[in-house]
Structure formats: C-alpha cells, structure tokens
Specification:
The protein has 172 residues and is an all-alpha fold. 74% of the residues lie in helices and 0% in strands.
Length: 172
C-alpha cells in the first residue's frame, strides 16, 4: 500500500518523476499480487482429493521424459545443473528487475503488458492447480543425496516431503 500510495503521490505532485511513479505502482502491483496468490495457494491446504503427480509422471514418461533420468544426466555435468538451479531461483528477482527496467526506461505500455501477462498466467496456473493439484516429481522419485547436492537440486526429497505434509495436514 505504501508503494502504491507513493506512486500515486508522485504522479500527482511530481510529474517530472513519472518513471519513478510507474515503477512504484508496478512494484506495488507485482508484490501485492504475488502475496495474494501465495495466500490463495495456502488456503488450498490440506488437499482432500487426490494428487495428480502419478498420472502426470506417467504422461511425461509416455512423452519420453523421466525426471530422475534428467537429474542423472545433470549429475554428469554438475555445472549445468547448478546453472539451471540458479536460473530457477533467480526468476522472481529477474521479474522484479524487468519491472524496474521497463518503468525506468519509459516503456509503460510494455510494462503494463508484462504485468497483465504475469498476473493472468499466474491466475490460470493457480486455478488449474486448484482443480488438479500436484507437486511434481520430487515427491515420487528419490534422487541420491550426493547427486542432489552436486547439482544443487532445488526441489529434492526434503521439499517433496514438506509439500506432502502440507497436502495432508495443511499449513501450520
């Protein structure tokens, strides 16, 4: 609310700072929407119905993709695995930097499109997950700890166990 208020104040009182105002408003939307979506996701726990990980893994296997095989291949090139982990973990900061960059370079229309695309896609993804909940292959396939550590596996066995606990017991 503070960023949003600051952005509106700058638009009204400091028109020369329009790019800073756009950045503050966009950041407020980005942060606020992310927080609301996180709360919405947690309200789904505990999950009473079935999880769809097994059927999704079977579909993946039908397409020729098995997560544990991919992880094994990454273990042969741990630098690539760590790089992919970094890319995954840096996705939210990258989006934040995109918001700052677009606002500060005056690309307001592109900024609005990016925010609309991001919020719309996240709404669709969460709605889909609410209907067909799943947690991914980390809960189905055990990756040896030495491989997980070598490549910096982001969602290893501990994460799978944590997600299953949330599904079964809900958020503490």
């Amino acid at each position: 609310m503070g960023l949003l208020s600051l952005g509106f104040w700058m638009r009204a009182m400091r028109p020369a700072m329009i790019r800073m105002a756009d950045m503050a408003i966009a950041a407020a939307i980005y942060i606020g929407f992310s927080g609301v979506i996180a709360i919405l996701i947690y309200t789904r726990f505990p999950i009473a119905g079935p999880l769809h990980d097994v059927s999704l893994a079977a579909f993946d296997a039908h397409l020729g993709y098995v997560w544990s095989h991919f992880v094994d291949r990454m273990a042969a090139s741990p630098d690539i695995g760590r790089l992919l982990g970094w890319v995954y973990l840096s996705s939210l900061p990258q989006l934040a930097l995109l918001v700052v960059y677009l606002a500060m370079t005056g690309r307001t229309r592109t900024l609005h499109r990016a925010l609309i695309a991001g919020t719309t896609s996240l709404i669709v993804i969460v709605a889909y997950w609410w209907v067909w909940p799943s947690f991914g292959p980390a809960k189905l396939q055990t990756i040896p700890k030495e491989i997980a550590d070598a490549i910096g596996l982001v969602h290893a066995a501990e994460e799978g166990a944590r997600m299953l606990a949330l599904a079964e017991q809900g958020a503490p």
